[in-house]
Amino acid sequence: MRSRAPKPVPAVLTKENAETIYWRPLEEGRITALDKRAARAIVSDGERRIYFTGDFVAGRPVRFRARGSAGEHWVGIFDESGGRIGSMSFVLKARTEMSCDRGPYTDIANRIEQLLRKNAENRSLLINGRLYRMFVTWGRDHVHTLKAMKYLADDVKSGLEYWLESQEPNGMFWDCIHPNPDYPAPTWFGEALGKGWYRYDDGMKYIVRRIPVEADCEFLYTEGVWYAWKASGDDAWMAAQLPRLEKALKYNNSHRDRWSRKHGLVRRSMCMDSWDFVNPLFCNGDHRCINPGDPQFLFHSDNSGLYASYWRMAEMYEHLGGEANQRRAAQLRKEGEALRQRANKKLFFGNCYGHMIPETLPEKEVYARVGDERKRMSLSTGYTINRRMPTHAMAVKILKEYQRRGKARRGESFAEWWTMDPPYLSHQWPRGGGKGFPIGEYMNGAICTIIAGELAKAAFDHGMEAYGADILERVWKLSQRDGGELHQVYRRLPENPRLPKARFRALDLRAVVNRGLRNGAHPEVVAWTGEGDNDMRNLPVGRRKFGAIEFDVIDPKTNGGRAVLRLDGRGKEGPRSVTIPVDGVKAQSLFFMHATPRSIPHHDVAGVYDVSYADGSVERIHLRTGYEIGHWWGVTDTPDRRRGEDKVNRDVTRVAWRGANGLWKNVGLYMHGWNNPHPDSAIVAIRAEAYPAGARGGGLMLAAISASDQPVAFEPRIRSYGLPDCWSQAAVYYAVAEGLAGIEDLERGFSRVRIAPRWAASQSDAA
């Protein structure tokens, strides 16, 4: 039997970047005709919309740029009469990228993309036989992270689907899911909230909760559906969620726990912004619960969130089309506008939205106890602007008020991105035996990069582009100051403190290091502590500052896969000691970047460093846990007020770096500073020895040593605590992508886009 000869190919398709299979948006393609009959080429996008038509002239190839909707693009080759003589296809994959010639703006976006991929939990939870990908297992955190991950992640729907599909009959959505710590038995972790506010899933494996005082889940999941629909372009999926969003809307605007009939607005207990703890002055029980007799308050963010649900749902109905959907969209817009008018009349006070406005209590009595809530600005103000609740004129007044307060408080705060301003005094929000919340920490007035991102986006949208660019420039400087990280919240401190200008010299550890950083990167070298993906993969390498101290961390790629020294107190997993040669350096101080590989009891001596001098003398440095060194898992130098003990002695030891690995989001190393009692004597060697401390033998992990010409000095701790990093990072990414770059998806899947770049207000000449 004779085989058929293959049909001749009428044309050849080549792409600009031959190293990749998939095409990128705006990548140039060339269609070269091989068939003499070929007269015209037509190219259509993933939705079969023709975006290019070109004629073959004198045998020259036709050039085009790939654009339109992602997916499979079709190339048709036609003869002069319009008859098709062949076709080809290619796949366009969109990947968000930004670049500019000057300024830090796209460096911010690129850094945040890396941090998001590192810091978002990205947990795939197997629940009842189904995988759900959650960036964070708190639903609101997942949605706020989705604000950026919609540009970066392939799966934007499954993490939401768990919450959507587990909705309660009354329309309430659940808040967070955690492995049951007491499985298969019940756990107090959820049951303490009371009946109706917790449930178990997958045969008691998981505890699912709703913190009762939280009034935001319903509108946030609506926001999440809106993001996922726009990113995926999945109309059928979006349409399937609308009945759930309708139930959530009704719960938000009618349920007795959430709705003020008196004012026609959303209400809640008196929380710090939208956080899950109530002011003890107005709470008759558990601070997370709505207790009988607890007075209620009106908060602009809850109402702007509900307002956004109205217009987002209206947009989705309008896109689906049809008479019934158009009627529902019009009704939603009308109801939303009425809510907006009520909220702005009740909650806006001249140049800002107030914080917690009493629903029924006499306002003067409340303000006498906690301060004037009409003048208190909080974290969610930027959200409210970007949810479109204020008019343009109102938004400008708010932004200018932030500028005014920032200038007025420059002596106490390096930025105006406060979680609360003014903060609550101890008698206004009692806590911890009357001490109150520390001013300038956490939700009581700390500096928050969530607010930075939201304010920058608002500034770009409301004609204050220079202010938006200025915020992004200051965020970059803050990230540089924080060792290349971008934390969620920082202490309310002045600009960089004046420290002695120090010069650092890195000591060479290449000959003694014996461990790698990333599991599997160099199969012949054990990574970190030898616990698989529980490694130190994201530790920055090379010469750089960690806070105010400069270290040079060995890049394992340049040293046979080895970057850190592992010592074992029992000699089983590494040598007990090594001697590091030093070439006669003189120093006022030495800094060591290190940690213990295992948890060692507080105050135990994990090991020593013996510093040897040219004259034969030796000085010993004892490394006590909780003073000069700490465990690499769960690193912190924040005072532990509950236990009454510090993780380290902050006068001489700080966190050098912290980040995530393959298993946990808070791993890192400490840096210990030691004032050299013989600064004029040459150092010839440093001997490091691990002691067999603790039940498992102790040990040391040493990553770098630096010599300084100045005494030990650390800048004040700049990081605060309590908020998720990925949430704040997403807000800043969104400000760059949608604010500065001005990319806005007007439908879904970028089928209709508005590009209104604001680069002219930045340092960039080309972007």
How would you sum up this structure in a few lines?
25% of the residues lie in helices and 22% in strands. With 767 residues, the chain is α+β, with helices and mostly antiparallel strands. It folds into four domains: 11-92, Immunoglobulin-like (Sandwich); 99-119 and 391-497 and 722-767, no CATH class; 233-377, no CATH class; 504-708, Jelly Rolls (Sandwich).
Number of domains: 4
What separation lies between the terminal Cα atoms?
61 Å
Radius of gyration: 30 Å
Give the percentage of residues in beta strands: 15-25%
Structural class of the secondary structure composition? alpha+beta
**Mean pLDDT score:** 92
Say how many strands there are. Answer: 34
Low-confidence stretches: none
CATH architecture of the largest domain: Sandwich
Q: What is the helix content?
A: 25-40%
Topology-level CATH name of the largest domain = Jelly Rolls
Shape: globular
Give a description of the structure:
This protein is of the alpha+beta class and 767 residues long. It has four domains: 11-92, Immunoglobulin-like (Sandwich), CATH 2.60.40.1930; 99-119 and 391-497 and 722-767, no CATH class; 233-377, no CATH class; 504-708, Jelly Rolls (Sandwich). It is built from 14 helices and 34 strands. Strands 21, 24, 26, 29, 30 and 32 form a six-stranded antiparallel β-sheet that branches. A hairpin with a 7-residue loop joins strand 29 (653-659) and strand 30. Helix 1 runs antiparallel to helix 14 (725-740). The chain starts with 10 loop residues before the first strand and ends in a 12-residue tail after the last strand. The model has no long low-confidence stretch (mean pLDDT 92).
